[in-house]
């Protein structure tokens, strides 16, 4: 039994700490409205008088200053409006600019039983759809990219694949009609956790249903229906886009002509799940995340958790050898004493990557899209499992409740998301049923069957040896699985370390090797 | 100008949020004193009524429950004592058990100008020192290990290298006198940030000075002086211990007979700095870290930040292929709906690794020792730079202040630890001065010169191909640098992926390959 005075103190303690304790220097900021924090007073919290001076933490000062600045913006706007789209609010409008929008009033049933009563797909296009509607290319994005793959009249900002798209570019807009969408679950105009739930007019937040990459593809094909495109000339994508691209072919084999999948995979493997897991956990541990409900002022988005998540992600986007060449052991300022805040050049690089991004993307979108990547598995067993759950939940969009609906809705009991009863224990060795990696005897049978719908599709699979997030064995696995399923038109390209040290980011940077391979394949 | 009412609201907002917002279910916990949190009420924060149910977050419930439980323990004990060593306090006593302690009343000057007015080295020994005092082996630990490498009478718990040490074991205690210490900066009995600063009787916390691996080695050799050991038969270590082992030879070439360095390096490279950087940033962003001052109840240690840091670290300790074999895409419970909390088996493994560790090691020790690893560079230039700073700060332990002391104390101005004025910008290509990797033309000249003191020392360098934290090229770099400096007695062993998929952890697990190599070398 805890004594009463202890409980009182406990309540007080639980109430009092601010998410980031204010330092004397920040009191100064608040008065001077300056965020140029350089120095913690030596009397900071009365901690002077030791054998050595108190360390200072400019990186934490900067985070605290941003929280205060966002709160102050939030409060300035909260008196008048809580409208999310208000640009004066603390919550940035995430859109990268003007785009078109397809609004579906037909509901979308998701793989794990969730429902979007209606949804929007943000998209942009380049080039002209020919009269036969046979020259369309659907371009899929990576995790956090918008539909803005290339500049256009409505939005002249350079897009994320600017150099790869255009007249006489690898994706030739003189010849092709290129469509790029923001994925469902994202925050750049397509329906995602930051969107309003039509059932109550509040943001979905973490009431958004779990979705899969297959669900995203289904949304995209609703857009193609709307555009009157029966069959794509090609489906093209890199990273998560490479997964979506393959997935498009598997779900709609008759509607996809050819497939380009760059630095993607046919199923997520544990190392990449682990890297995404830590990003999610770090973000969810930010008190400002508030279990997903941070959209109403004076709440501010979890910019610290987002920054940290992006720093971890950035590590997986490049390669050690590239950093060795670029940064070595250079410190940001050799004349300064070592610090626990960013100090080596590689640290300021990661810090900057996090800074640039922390208010550019919605935290809940990151969680849901990242989770969708983990769930990705084009194996036959997973497809059958998902199909069974979809069938059980079909009534939800048919508007007829089956008699035993309450007991058959799988994956929707909100109290079932528990940790396993016993913590994980180190095991001596994996059983053979766990081992799924490509073995010397050939690719996994489950994947060969899962990809069998693509037996005749011309397919370009491109991998990069220095990629640690989607290692080259994963692209080899795709190519081998396709070939084992009878596909004789698979082109597999693997860029060695002599060609690229840019790791996973190669698809964004290497116009020569990646661009030419795509161009040749689309000819 | 921010309006007055906005500033009032801002002050209120800054005061009000708790580090972890309490959920209704946690109110239940507080009453029932149970931490078996399974379910968030569907009326959680009045967020029912959406198109889909609210997600639940058992992993966050568990963190909140631990915070409350620790606070309650803290409050129960704070009425009587703030003694850190009190086992009833919230701050665990980190020691893994009984050990010996060497207390130096002579101060220690550190590489970057900090001073420990006095210090303690915790150590344990196995075997018997022979009359000639010539059979001593100094065993160095990894980042967070204690001196308890092997069980003994005083502490029968298995040690961290239990199977490698003992009669007729790779490190044969019938023949050798084995000494293992907790490093300076650690928390298992040696002086570190959780120790009391003798100048004011309060914990050092982040008033602890930056230290280097060289400083740790200097502390160890003070212990050897005390034990009357003039020359070691061998210096042995893995991971950070492999770095310390090499460093011992470089600092005290005449006092070290032979050197074993396993899965270590001669200088930290940017990828491992990046991985440690994210761990530090995640930890420092935990509000409970409180800039290092969490030792006094009712404060509780930053267990969330520590858990997250350990999860990131755990990713670097093993290899992707091993996880592919062991976990594949298995979910913890296939019958459950996917969750944003740990879900795949790999996630529960990481979660459990963090859980096990988060109260076992001092957060500030992690920051300082991790930083010391980043600063490690046995190159000649770094040695000269450090020597120059030591010379300038020598007066601090000589007790005679030079005339211009205030201007010559480098690395001690507490206001200099600023971020670089401009954020890092992507550069087209590194200049050749940045590139430090081993080139086809041979190992870096700076490292060859830095290791030149070891030209005649028999040395065993062991690396593991599947190690991503200390990749095999780093051990090759050591071996090549030693050989280029004229050493003809270098044994370099590299375990391929056919021998071990255990990555960095191989040194803890592989008694056959690692153990035999060590045994043969020490013969």
TrEMBL record, chains A, B:
It holds the Pfam family Abhydrolase_1. One of its GO terms (biological process) is methionine biosynthetic process. GO terms for molecular function: homoserine O-acetyltransferase activity; serine O-acetyltransferase activity. Residues 136-479 form the AB hydrolase-1 domain. GO terms for cellular component: mitochondrion. Gene3D superfamilies: alpha/beta hydrolase. Residues 429-439 have a biased composition (Polar residues). Keywords: Transferase. Signal peptide: none annotated. Residues 402-445 are annotated as: Disordered. Belongs to the AB hydrolase superfamily. MetX family. This is Homoserine O-acetyltransferase.
């Amino acid at each position: 039994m805890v004594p009463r005075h202890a409980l009182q103190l406990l309540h007080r303690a639980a109430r009092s700490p601010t998410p980031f304790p204010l330092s004397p220097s920040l009191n100064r900021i608040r008065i001077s409205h300056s965020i140029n924090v350089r120095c913690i007073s030596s009397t900071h919290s009365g901690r002077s008088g030791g054998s050595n001076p108190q360390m200072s933490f400019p990186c934490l000062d900067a985070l605290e200053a941003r929280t205060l600045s966002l709160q102050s913006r939030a409060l300035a706007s909260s008196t008048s409006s809580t409208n999310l789209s208000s640009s004066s609010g603390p919550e940035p409008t995430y859109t990268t600019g003007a785009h078109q929008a397809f609004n579906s009033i037909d509901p979308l049933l998701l793989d794990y039983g969730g429902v979007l009563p209606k949804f929007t797909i943000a998209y942009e296009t380049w080039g002209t759809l020919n009269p036969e509607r046979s020259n369309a290319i659907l371009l899929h994005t990576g995790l956090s990219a918008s539909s803005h793959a290339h500049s256009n009249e409505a939005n002249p900002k350079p897009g994320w694949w600017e150099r790869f798209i255009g007249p006489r570019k690898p994706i030739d807009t003189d010849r092709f009609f290129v469509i790029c969408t923001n994925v469902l679950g994202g925050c750049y105009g397509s329906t995602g956790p930051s969107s309003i739930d039509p059932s109550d007019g509040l943001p979905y937040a973490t009431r958004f249903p779990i979705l899969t990459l297959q669900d995203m593809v289904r949304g995209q094909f609703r857009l193609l229906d709307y555009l009157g495109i029966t069959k794509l000339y090609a489906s093209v994508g890199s990273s998560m886009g490479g997964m979506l691209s393959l997935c498009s072919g598997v779900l709609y084999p008759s509607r996809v002509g050819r497939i380009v999948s760059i630095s993607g995979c046919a199923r997520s493997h544990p190392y990449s799940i682990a890297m995404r897991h830590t990003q999610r956990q770090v973000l969810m541990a930010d008190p400002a995340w508030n279990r997903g409900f941070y959209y109403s002022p004076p709440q501010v988005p979890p910019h610290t958790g987002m920054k940290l998540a992006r720093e971890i992600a950035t590590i997986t986007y490049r390669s050690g050898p590239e950093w060795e060449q670029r940064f070595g052991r250079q410190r940001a300022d050799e004349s300064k004493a070592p610090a626990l805040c960013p100090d080596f050049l590689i640290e300021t690089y990661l810090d900057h990557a996090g800074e640039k991004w922390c208010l550019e993307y919605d935290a809940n979108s990151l969680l849901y899209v990242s989770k969708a990547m983990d769930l990705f598995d084009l194996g036959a067993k997973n497809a059958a499992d998902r199909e069974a759950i979809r069938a059980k939940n079909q009534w939800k969009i048919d508007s007829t409740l089956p008699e035993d609906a309450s007991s058959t809705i799988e994956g929707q009991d909100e109290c079932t998301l528990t940790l396993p009863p016993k913590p994980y224990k180190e095991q001596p060795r994996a059983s053979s049923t766990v081992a799924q990696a490509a073995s010397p005897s050939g690719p996994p049978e489950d994947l060969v069957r899962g990809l069998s719908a693509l037996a005749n599709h011309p397919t370009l699979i491109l991998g990069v040896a220095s990629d640690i997030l989607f290692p080259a064995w994963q692209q080899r696995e795709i190519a081998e699985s396709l070939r084992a399923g009878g596909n004789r038109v698979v082109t597999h390209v693997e860029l060695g370390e002599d060609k690229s040290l840019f790791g996973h980011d190669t698809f964004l940077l290497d116009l020569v090797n990646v661009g030419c391979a795509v161009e040749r394949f689309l000819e």
